[in-house]
Amino acid sequence: MEFTKLFQPININGKLEVKNRIVLPALGLDYTRDYTFTEKFAAFYRARAHGGVGLMTVGPIAVDEVGGAPSMPQLFDDTNVEPLRQFIDEMHSDTDVKVGTQLFHMGRYSYAHMWGKEPIAPSPIASKLTKHTPREMTYEDIQKTQQDFADAAARSAEAGFDYIEIIACTGYLLSEFLSPLTNHRTDEYGGSLENRMRFGVETVAKVRKAVGDDIAVGVRIAGNDFMDGGNTNTENAEFAAAAQKAGVDAVNVTGGWHETTIPQLTTDVPPGVYTYLARGVKDRVEVPVFASNRLGNPYLAERTLRSGAADMICWARPIIADPELPNKVKEGRLDEIVTCIACNQGCFDAVFSQKPVHCVLNPLAGREGKYDVGRTAAAKKVMVAGGGPAGMEFAVTAAQRGHDVTLYEKDNRLGGQINLACTPPGKAEFHNLVDSLEKRMAISGVAIELGRCVTAETVASEKPDVLVVASGARELEVKVPGIDKPHVVSAWDLLAERVADVGENVVVVGGSATGCESAHFVAHMGTVDPETFTFLMYHAAEDTDFAKKLLHQSRRNITIIDMLPRLADNVGKTSRWSLMKGLRLSDVELRPNTKLLEITDDAVLVETEDGNKSIPADTVIMAVGAVALDELTSEVAGKGIEVIAIGDAKEPRKIADAIFEGFEEAVNL
Ligand SMILES: Cc1cc2nc3c(=O)[nH]c(=O)nc-3n(C[C@H](O)[C@H](O)[C@H](O)COP(=O)(O)O)c2cc1C
């Protein structure tokens, strides 16, 4: 398939010509602590502009102190106008990107009480994110906030932005006015949909007036709030139509609110699932519509455009992972793509912990210009022992720098623990990480030896200058009575699908990510897969309620026990709730504060706060952690070879640590 549509220029409502259909939407990056447009922001966006994106959003940008945050640049005064102008001028002269911004007000989601300002919202309804109750906006607040949007828009125009987007989605201020859940007002800004739309419509009109008719203005809406009792695709499409009347030139359609319990961004969200929302809006407006969320696969993006569901597509995390994604697609360099796996660990989890955005897969994200990945003057012969993420990342980077690299993997496939991580339901995309690194290793000239375990003898005969020990980890073993019984299996064996017999009563020992995901995996055995469900629905073969039951009915009694009070504690904030929801839907019993004492033939004996108990178990899955597997380091010590241990072989940690360590050691080689 050729990417004909993706690279077709588009004219946005007669006001803006964009070279292709790719939008980098707004991303809270947390690259400042005092509202400054820092060099770190500039470096991040510069790399993306040079990477070929058509319309690049620099933002969110705070329109005032109550609705914004010091972690984002502001345009509530003139401080950032000149630095932004210089940056935008540079982008316009060095590239053909169009630069947009997003004017941002969090309303009830604002943390402003933490910096001494009272958050404001249409109605005083506590924020589930901040646990704080905002003050109800007065008429004067409404006028002032709308003026703040207009003033920030005028400054955006002064700074030279080509496109100005107003955020009206995700549960932030404009969507709070729109929703009956958060707008209980009895004045002309509350009640009927027309009244609830008034704040947004007036804001659009004031922004339009402030910037004149020549600059393209857009609005970002939730296609569906996905909130019980909130706005659906009907009301939100109605708002899109009203916003168009008030003067917007484009509508960017994303998914639901931060509070929704329908996953929006996690890896289990099927690629392209929310495109139907953009299509619904497209039926209601004449201006270009952007589709968003999980559209990073270039073929899917092209098909989305060809289907007519949207005029442009948003790539957010895919462009964090690979700034050059648009150029690579355009130039047919698909094998070079660093493929986003929607793990959220470096990006969404980071912002929700008030930390700067980085990326598990792209060690340079948020560190642009900090590392010299140029060619080495002194090429070395390097042996990498282990083909997990750390070893593969090291190999790619070292080979790109001109070193002579051979990677050895004892299994007959690459990936290490990633091959286990992609087994649980909804995590298949984690394998893209392996595929992507494998292709990039091939391109950069890494020699790969599968099915070869590196020993001290191999090292002695190969005589490398450097040995990189990336042999990963092994499962931790615990000593409890009964641990050697045949129905006790390891979580890694389960996830590697080496366990043929899983009984009716399953107890998972260990409630960290691996334990919870193992339970989720077992719960899904024998349920219907999405394709079967779709088939049944498509042909109306089964009653909908019965078919829905088939999605969750595990037919097994599954219990997770852990000594700690909180299960899945090592899963990122933005993915944990979705995993826990999956366990709940499958009726998995969660038993925190529970210690394994003994495994018998048909039960586990545990110690709980309420005394000792017996839980029936004909399969016991051990998921109690990992220890470094680095024997090779001591075996070759003192033999005159430089040895570098990376990733889990150094200390079991997260994929991000493994990849970053592999990269950094290769840069320092
Ligand atoms: C770290 C991070 C910060 C984000 N901040 C914003 C924001 O400030 N405004 C906004 O409209 N969307 C924001 N989003 C949502 C993205 O613009 C985008 O809609 C979402 O990531 C889905 O697209 P993707 O699957 O291509 O990543 C953010 C997403 C991430 C990952």
Structural write-up:
The radius of gyration is 27 Å and the shape is globular. 33% of the residues lie in helices and 18% in strands. An 8-stranded parallel barrel has the order 3-4-5-8-9-10-11-12, surrounded by 7 helices. The protein has a 5-stranded parallel sheet with strand order 15-14-13-16-27. The protein has a 5-stranded parallel sheet with strand order 18-25-19-20-21. The model has no long low-confidence stretch (mean pLDDT 96). α3 runs parallel beside α5, α5 (193-211) packs parallel to α6 and α12 runs parallel beside α14 (431-443). It starts with 9 loop residues before the first strand and ends with a helix. By secondary structure, it is of the alpha/beta class. The structure holds flavin mononucleotide.
